[in-house]
Structures are given as C-alpha cells and as structure tokens.
Design goal:
The complex is a heterodimer of chains A (208) and B (262). By secondary structure, chain A is mainly beta. In chain A, 9% of the residues lie in helices and 30% in strands. In chain B, the strands form three sheets. Chain B has a five-stranded mixed beta sheet, with no helix packed on it. In chain B, strands 2, 5, 11 and 12 form a four-stranded mixed beta sheet that branches. Classes of the chains: A mainly beta (208), B mainly beta (262).
Chain lengths: 208, 262
C-alpha cells in the first residue's frame, strides 16, 4: 500500500431552501434581529468610481422568474483591486469598499438589484488584462449547489473581446449570456441582466 | 525598432523566478463534484426546472476566485451566536436547549480562521419565522431562528439554540424534513463559498428525506449528521452537538510568505 494522502473531503452542499432570507437577509423574512445587516448596497459616499445599478432576474426552465433566489456579488474596486490580501496587484486599495453584497429577489417580480460601482479591469496571474467583471453566486430552493457565473459590461466591447475567460467559451453566442446591458434611467446608469438556468439561452456557469 | 538587447539563447534556462512550491499559488483544490448533489435530482422536484443542463465551464482559479470578502467582529453583535437570547422578548424560546460547535477546516485539515459562519433554522415546533411559511405549527414569540459567528484562530465556532423540529413540505404528499440547521460559510476565497445543512444523529427522517438523499455518496451524507457530544454539554442546561465543516483545500502553506488564507 502506498502512503495514504489523508486529505479531508469537502462538506456536501445542500440547497439554501425557500427561507434563506431568515439567516442571510432577515428583514426580507419579515423581522429585525441583528444590529448590523449585510445588504445589496456596496457603496458608501466615499467609494471611488462610477455608480451603477445592477438589475436583473433569474429565470427557471419555463422562463418564470425565481422569486426566492439569493445572489451574492464579489468584485474589485474601480482601480481593479480586490479587498483581500491575496490580490497582489498595484491598484489602490480602498479599505471602506468591501466589494461584496447580497440581495434577495423581490417576492413578486423576482427582480434582483445591487447598488455598486463599475469595477476596474483585473490583471491575472499571467499578467493579462481581464475585462471588468462582477463575480456572481446564486442559491435558492431547488439549487443543490451554488452556481457561479460572471457579469461583464456591454460598453466594454474591446476588453470583452480580449478577455481570457470569455474566450474560453466555445460558442460565441453563449458569451453574450454574461454581458449586462448598459442603459440610463433618470440620470442613473443601469446594467440589466438575465440569468437563464436552462433553455437555449442558458447562462454560462463556471466550475471555479 | 531600435537596437534590441541580445535575445536569450534559450529563455527556458534564464527563468527569473525560482521554482515555487506546488502548494503555493493560492488556488483551491478542484471541487470533487461526486460528493455533492447533482444539480438535476428529480427526487427533489424543485431541482428539475432550476438545474443548468449545459456542462459547467471549468476555470483555473484567478484572483477573482481566490479572493473573497473579509469579515470582522465589527460586523457582528454580542448576541449573534446566541439564538436563545438574540430574539427573546419575555422569556426563553420553547424547546430542547442545545449547543452546536465545531471547526471550519479545509481539505488539508487546517482550520479556517476568522471566517463568517451564518445559521438559520425552524423553531422547536418546525415553524420558520418567515412571511412565506404557513405551516400550522405556532411561531415562538421568543425565537428568531438565525445567528452568526466568526471562527477563531483555529477555525472553531460555537452557538446556542433550541433544537429545530421536523416539518412537512410539498414534494411528495407526505414529505417531512428531518430536523436541520442551515449553514452558510465563506472561507477565504469566493470559490470556497458553501451552503449546507446539519442534521441530528439518530433522526429517523434522514434516510427518507428527498433533499438529503440527493447526495450520491453515503459517506458525504453521513458527514452532514452531527453526533451528540456529551463532552461539550453543559450539565443541567444544554446538550451539545458537534459539526465540523470542510471547505475546499487551498494550495498555500505555512512555509510560504504570507499567502491567502494564512
């Protein structure tokens, strides 16, 4: 017998269930319990960068919006720097900008909204520029293990065309499932997205 | 172009970087999906329309995956890990008083320090404090049903609560969830993000639960079942259950200069 490797095994995932709000966004469950709560607003008045609203829905295989889904986003700041010690890039760190938020979908419309800033381009380990993007994690009743995807920005055509992750997607048509569309509404910049869990427009999900 | 520096004869012989430890790049071990429930698990009916059908696109970990949000004690309140007191209005909640404790580890066996663990559950009668839960069991006025903790330097966490009750749900006509507590764990990078559920040793509903049995691996299922831990019980007060949580291993070691997660 060779030596045993003795690695532990990862704990198995289980669905977040329909009542995920109780633990993660208790105000949406209908009560107030914690002194401090996490939210879908990532910015403070001091945050640098262009203010944007990310707004979208997650659709099931019939095209119906999920009304009990929870999304988290993780992103770099406007200088392309993540607020984490493993990011060794040279962009200026902003201690106040955590770069993370969570949002539950509206119980009627299924709409998911984040208030954040547009992240800067990232430099990967090989020194390549990666197009600005937001990392997304999706959990809900019926989702057995959290789904990872990304949102890119429709006004970054050149950067998107050169992005090493988008270019990993074999079918060019599927790349568009990750592009949030820019518009302006009452002076605010809104990026709209649709995440399709199934169907011909199924969003690209990653095994990270 | 102007005069160039002379080209290296063989750039492979002139690498500026010393050969680094294979465990030093901060990436995570590839996820072993055979121990997780598949996205499409027809016995759990809600998964049918909510499961991607295309293959996941495998990504080498980049800085976007090995980084993740950092939390601190400033994010928490003093009662956040005490579900017996954090929503009490005029007394303690009804139910078996229990302590749940354990460590958050990664697959190398190292504790994951200073990571956020969040938990939520039904009350002792199996009713959730949630505007969408309509089960006939009563709400407990003194029980909110959620809490959170940061692991210490060794990855240890603990909280106090009442044991949740089983409850019926719409899958088959007579489907009941075993008693369980939901857990959300972050780890040091966003690729370690995990939500799971803890079950209780000896619960006869475990082998017939359509959600729990989505897990194809018997050992992986057993690892979601917390044993009674009399050593951590408080005499004349609370029983204890032990629940360790393992996140994906990280390719960084204590021998490196400071790297992610250390």
């Amino acid at each position: 017998m060779p030596q045993p490797l003795n690695y532990l095994k990862e704990t198995a995932s289980q669905t977040a269930g329909p009542y995920v709000h109780i633990g993660l966004i208790p105000a949406m469950a209908g009560f107030d319990i914690f002194e401090k709560n996490f939210s879908n607003v990532l910015v403070t008045p001091n945050t640098k960068g262009e203010r944007i609203t990310l707004e979208g829905r997650v659709l099931d295989g019939t095209g119906t919006p999920l009304r009990d889904v929870l999304l988290e986003i993780w992103q770099a700041n406007a200088a392309g720097r993540y607020n984490h010690p493993a990011d060794r890039s040279t962009g200026a760190l902003e201690e106040e900008f955590r770069g993370w938020g969570r949002a539950g979908s509206d119980f009627d419309s299924g709409l998911v909204i984040f208030e954040t800033i547009k992240p800067g381009a990232i430099t990967d380990k090989a020194g390549r520029k990666c197009a600005p993007h937001v990392n997304v994690w999706i959990v809900a009743r019926g989702i057995n293990i959290g789904l990872n995807t990304r949102l890119y920005f429709s006004d970054e055509e050149a950067a998107n065309a050169a992005d090493p992750v988008l270019n990993l997607i074999e079918q060019p048509a599927r790349r568009s499932t990750l592009i949030a569309k820019r518009s302006e509404r009452a002076g605010k910049v809104v990026y709209s997205f649709t995440i399709n869990l199934q169907g011909p427009e199924e969003t690209v999900f990653f095994d990270v | 172009m102007n005069a160039q520096a002379p080209a290296l004869q063989d750039p492979r012989l002139n690498r500026p970087e010393p050969f680094a430890s294979p465990l030093g790049d901060g990436g995570f071990f590839q996820r072993d999906r055979s121990i997780h429930p598949p996205a499409h698990a027809p016995g759990y009916k809600s998964s049918v329309l909510r499961s991607p059908r295309q293959a996941l696109l495998s990504l080498e970990n980049s800085v976007s995956e090995i980084t993740g949000p950092v939390f601190g004690h400033n994010d928490l309140g003093p009662l956040d890990n005490d579900l017996i007191r954090n929503y009490a209005k005029d007394g303690d909640p009804v139910g078996e008083r229990i302590i749940v404790h354990g460590r958050v580890l990664d697959e190398t066996g190292r504790g994951v320090p200073n990571t956020l663990v969040e938990f939520w559950q039904a009350n002792a009668g199996g009713r959730y404090r949630h505007k969408k839960d309509t089960y006939l069991a009563p709400i407990d006025p003194n029980f909110g049903g959620c809490g959170r903790a940061l692991t210490d330097d060794t990855g240890y966490y603990y909280f106090r609560t009442v044991k949740p009750g089983p409850y019926p749900w719409r899958n088959y006509v007579n489907s009941w969830r075993p008693a369980h507590i939901h857990f959300s764990v972050f780890g040091s990078g966003f690729a370690q993000r995990l939500i799971t559920q803890m079950y209780f040793e000896g619960d006869p509903l475990i082998p017939v639960c359509p959600i729990l049995t989505t897990i194809p691996d018997k050992d992986a299922l057993d690892r979601l079942v917390a044993p009674l831990d009399l050593n951590a019980s408080t005499p004349f007060d609370s029983l204890a259950y032990r629940f360790d949580i393992v996140l994906r291993g990280q390719r960084s070691t204590y021998f490196e200069n400071r790297t992610a997660g250390n």
